[in-house]
């Protein structure tokens, strides 16, 4: 085990039984797997577990230990009764990439004694089964979930199912970034609005559920994941809303902020902070009307349009074609103003752009 560095790591854990925060950036040999997992499980006071690096087994590294969600949940989490935060970089699914993902129902959640409140998944390679097991195992304690690409093994439809049925009803903050693998033609056919794989309104479908994410306070997303219908389906608990790379009209947001539903209840009654980052601009009148509503609530509005923001994606090209732009669609946009920050009391409202 010495060549893989595992012996030193295990010795450190055995001599530091009171550790509360563990971050692993080393790569271990596969032969170190059992000793490493056993040593980690022996440290019972862990509150934060972070994986900084994960070398995946794509056929070339069959002797390397790969961190997999199902093994972390089943082998480690049950021993950590104080666990609150997990932060995983490129965590893998239940099976190797070239394997057929198992049905989510085939991997039951694990009953945990800990109350995990925050999960951060960066560039994850989770399949639907692995992600659903991870989230369901955390139960109703989860308050913050942040998932940023690539998520190549997670289709739009799979993500929709996970968001609808596998997340704590008490979740307060959700950040989700679409995968590059989702950059494909998305149908504008009205008949496809209930199909998350083809419809641009993936989040519209999720929030149309009467039970999913009804206590959410902060939503941040990146990519073609919503339409203007989203504004009328978000829960009244929402305080912060941010999006980028998704063309949503200001008129729809303004209407949602100033109108009521059939029962006379206001849409987005608690929204105080809205941030938009896009390749396209809003009309000055529409933008100011949205700003005015939020400022009257003691809130703030942030908006940035940048023609150089990222490379055009397929959805961008579709948008430009619909708008009838030529090769450079930004030459005639001269009314844009830089992002604004408004005071709310004695504090500056936070920037909630997706990171």
List keywords for this structure.
355 residues; single chain; ten-stranded parallel beta sheet; disordered C terminus; 24% helix; alpha/beta; two-stranded antiparallel sheet; 9 helices; elongated; Leucine-rich repeat, LRR (right-handed beta-alpha superhelix)
Q: Explain this structure to me?
A:
- It is a single chain.
- The chain has helices spanning 6-15, 33-42, 69-75, 128-138, 156-165, 202-207, 250-258, 284-296, 314-323, and strands at residues 21-24, 48-51, 85-89, 118-122, 144-148, 173-177, 218-222, 240-244, 273-278, 300-305, 343-344, 347-348.
- The chain is α/β, with parallel strands linked by helices.
- α7 (250-258) packs parallel to α8 (284-296).
- The two termini are 38 Å apart.
Question: Topology of this protein?
Answer:
Blueprint lengths: L5 H10 L5 E4 L8 H10 L5 E4 L17 H7 L9 E5 L28 E5 L5 H11 L5 E5 L7 H10 L7 E5 L24 H6 L10 E5 L17 E5 L5 H9 L14 E6 L5 H13 L3 E6 L8 H10 L19 E2 L2 E2 L7
Parallel strand pairs: 1-2, 2-3, 3-4, 4-5, 5-6, 6-7, 7-8, 8-9, 9-10
Antiparallel strand pairs: 11-12
Explain briefly what this protein structure is.
The chain has helices spanning 6-15, 33-42, 69-75, 128-138, 156-165, 202-207, 250-258, 284-296, 314-323, and strands spanning 21-24, 48-51, 85-89, 118-122, 144-148, 173-177, 218-222, 240-244, 273-278, 300-305, 343-344, 347-348.
Series of secondary-structure elements, N-terminal to C-terminal: HEHEHEEHEHEHEEHEHEHEE
* Mean pLDDT figure: 81
- Using the coordinates above, name the CATH class of the largest domain: Alpha Beta
Q: What is the CATH architecture descriptor of the largest domain?
A: Alpha-Beta Horseshoe
Number of helices: 9
Strand content: 15-25%
Tell me about the largest β-sheet: 10 strands, parallel
Q: State the low-pLDDT regions, or none.
A: 325-355
Judged by helices, strands and strand pairing, the structural class is alpha/beta
How many distinct domains? 2
Helix content: 10-25%
């Amino acid at each position: 085990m010495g060549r893989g560095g595992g012996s030193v790591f295990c010795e450190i854990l055995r001599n530091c039984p009171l550790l509360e925060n563990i971050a692993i950036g080393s790569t271990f040999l596969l032969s170190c797997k059992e000793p490493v997992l056993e040593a980690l499980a022996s440290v019972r006071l862990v509150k934060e577990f972070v994986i900084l690096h994960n070398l995946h087994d794509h056929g070339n590294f069959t002797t390397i230990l790969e961190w997999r969600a199902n093994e972390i949940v089943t082998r480690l989490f049950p021993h950590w009764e104080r666990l609150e935060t997990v932060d995983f970089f490129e965590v893998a699914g239940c099976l190797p990439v070239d394997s057929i993902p198992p049905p989510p129902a085939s991997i039951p959640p694990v009953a945990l004694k800990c109350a995990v409140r925050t999960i951060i998944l960066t560039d994850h390679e989770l399949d639907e089964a692995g992600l659903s097991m991870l989230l369901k195992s955390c139960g109703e304690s989860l308050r913050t979930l942040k998932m940023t690409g690539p998520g190549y093994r997670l289709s739009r439809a799979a993500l929709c199912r996970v968001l609808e049925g596998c997340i704590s009803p008490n979740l307060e903050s959700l950040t989700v970034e679409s995968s590059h693998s989702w950059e494909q033609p998305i149908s504008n056919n009205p008949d496809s609005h209930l199909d998350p794989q083809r419809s641009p309104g993936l989040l519209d479908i999720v929030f149309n559920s009467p039970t999913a994410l009804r206590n959410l306070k902060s939503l941040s997303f990146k990519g073609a994941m919503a339409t203007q219908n989203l504004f009328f389906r978000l829960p009244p608990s929402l305080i912060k809303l941010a999006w980028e790379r998704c063309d949503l009209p200001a008129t729809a947001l303004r209407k949602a902020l100033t109108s009521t539903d059939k029962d006379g209840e206001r849409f987005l009654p608690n929204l105080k902070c809205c941030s938009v980052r896009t390749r396209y601009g809003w009309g000055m009148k529409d933008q100011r009307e949205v700003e005015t509503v939020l400022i009257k609530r003691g809130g703030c509005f942030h908006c940035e349009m940048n023609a150089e923001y990222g490379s055009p994606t397929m959805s961008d090209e579709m948008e430009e074609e619909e708008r009838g732009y030529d090769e450079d669609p930004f030459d005639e946009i001269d009314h844009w103003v830089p992002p604004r920050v408004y005071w709310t009391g004695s504090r500056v409202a936070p920037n909630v752009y997706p990171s």
